[in-house]
Specification:
Blueprint (H helix, E strand, L loop, with lengths): L1 H17 L4 E4 L2 H8 L7 E4 L4 E5 L17 E4 L8 H11 L4 E4 L6 H10 L4 E4 L3 H7 L3 H22 L8 H14 L4 E2 L4 E4 L20 E6 L1 E3 L2 E2 L2 E6 L6 H19 L7 H14 L11 E3 L6 E5 L12 E4 L2 E4 L3 E4 L2 E4 L9 E2 L11
Parallel strand pairs: 1-5, 3-4, 5-6
Antiparallel strand pairs: 1-2, 2-3, 7-10, 8-9, 9-12, 10-11, 13-14, 15-18, 16-17, 18-19
Helix pairs in contact: 3-4, 6-7, 8-9
Amino acid sequence: MSEVYAARRTRLREYCNAGGSAAALVSRPANVRYLAGAAPHGAVLLLGKTEDLLVCAGPTAGRPTQERPDEALRVQTLPGVGGGDPAVAAAGLAAGQGADSLAVEEHHLTVARHRALGSVAPGLRLGNLGGAVEQLRVVKDEEEISCLRIGAEITDQALGELLESILVGRTERHLALELERRLVDHGADGPAFPTSVATGPNAGRPGHRPTDRRVEEGDFLSVCLGATYRGYRCEIGRTFVIGTAPADWQIELYDLVFAAQRAGRESLVPGAACRDVDRAARQVLDSAGYTEGLTALTGHGVGLEIDEDPQMSPAAMGKLDACVPVTVEPGVHLPGRGGVRIDDTLVVRPEADGGPELLTITTKELLAL
């Protein structure tokens, strides 16, 4: 992997040089990990004029193998307990290497931290790196996709085991905690985001935080969870009916959301406009009269963070590339009654390679549990 990280840093260096910056300071943790192989707490990456350095406030020894920095990258550990601010120290090191300019991630630095960089190296001209690293991260290599694939397998396994257990009478909170435990039991680093379990009138509500409401017969049960595996995060959402055959209104609503989700999935082709993916799913729901209360976006990229570019929304800019993992997650929530959400993680692939690769494979049939 060392050559992979080196190639990533080279691409970023070329971007910085084209913009007139001799060096760059990367401080956002996911970006540090992408370029350095690991991101110890508080660590920053300096792409220096003469040498690249991972600057840390504490030692990196003793970490699991997948959390250790690229062996080809020198680690600079600050002295003493706490050691000071690695970003400020890195700015001083950049100046010491003879750099006259330093591109920084202004969207991640606080105003106070930005001022401290300028004060420690007043001769440095500070520029804005912007979202350059985030844009590099959009298209994944096959090693990254493999991590996402394994995370999806873990997620499917945890969800499948829960569905085989007795659910009536258990609380949303209890079920969410059990799912997160199962993720770890099956090899995940941890949950990719706080697990959502929603029952009855809560079902289908995006971002619902589990409560002490107990599962009842006839409820819709919607679940949204994901595993983190070697830093990469995936997502799945499914909706079921508890105990009895679904009511007619539940079948109708489920079929509608399923059709919207399928339309979104089928539009995932290289070159497709992000807004068109959103439109494909949204117009299915709009045509059935569900124009109020829809989510702001149909899907988003995933990777080292659970919400990355690209964004599939009505105002989204840009087009999809091959090897970009995204979610497609339309849903409808009816206040007081509940609702449906169906969410998959897929990888954009050309038609010649079989079209979009579905990573989360738990059935989308409306099951009565």
